[in-house]
Amino acid sequence: MNASMLFIPFVVMLTPVAILLIFLRYRSELTKERYRTLLQLAEKGVDLPHDLLVQPHAADADRRRALVLVSGGLGLIAMFLALPFELHNGQRIASLWGLGLLPLMTGLGYFASWWLNRRDAIRG
Question: Which of 23, 36, 56, 97 is the most buried (most CB within 10 A)?
Answer without folding.
Answer: 97
